[in-house]
Amino acid sequence: MKKRFLVLYIVSLGCCVAGLLLLSLGGWIRIKAVVAGYLLSRSWEMSLESGRPVKPWPWADTWPVGRLRTADGKIDLVILEGDSGEVLAFGPGHVSGSDRVAGSGHCVLAGHRDTSFSFLQHLKKNDVLLLRGLNGPVKYYSVQSFLVKRSNELYFDSEADNRLTLITCYPFSAVVPGGNLRYLVFAEGIPSGAVL
């Protein structure tokens, strides 16, 4: 009888230790996300002050190049340079080869559907997005259309003027990450005076 209680005690203790380890790992990930968010915002402010990109931490392989906000201010994201998985883990990224953030051409941004770009599923036609690059004023964009395409069918018109395209994985509620479908939001630049 004592042996059975000892085994039960050891198994219970092992389960408790495993549970505590899993909880601490989950907590560590949340702490890293909060600290990274603070460092990215600080890096963006320092970049604005200096007029040149400032890395959020010394070993970072990316840097802030812009800020994306919704008109109601509920979404406020620092945009990073690049669109690799490492970059997108910290926020939306500027797709290489597209025009600079808040430039006069076609800017393309990518983000994860379950973190930074989860709000895309709630956008509606004519919603207004505010985009600011390192140099220059805030530009306003009006959401015009939405599209779902296969990832191997994506392309962007590098000759288009005053456009913003946002890309994320689709469907938003997918259990398994990745997949070959992408959700695209197309927006066109509007004069700041046209915003109500």
TrEMBL record:
<keyword id="KW-0472">Membrane</keyword>
<feature type="transmembrane region" description="Helical">
    <location>
        <begin position="7"/>
        <end position="29"/>
    </location>
</feature>
<keyword id="KW-1133">Transmembrane helix</keyword>
<dbReference type="Pfam" id="PF04203">
    <property type="entry name" value="Sortase"/>
</dbReference>
<dbReference type="InterPro" id="IPR005754">
    <property type="entry name" value="Sortase"/>
</dbReference>
<keyword id="KW-0812">Transmembrane</keyword>
<dbReference type="InterPro" id="IPR041999">
    <property type="entry name" value="Sortase_D_1"/>
</dbReference>
<protein>
    <submittedName>
        <fullName>Class GN sortase</fullName>
    </submittedName>
</protein>
<dbReference type="InterPro" id="IPR022445">
    <property type="entry name" value="Sortase_proteobact_type"/>
</dbReference>
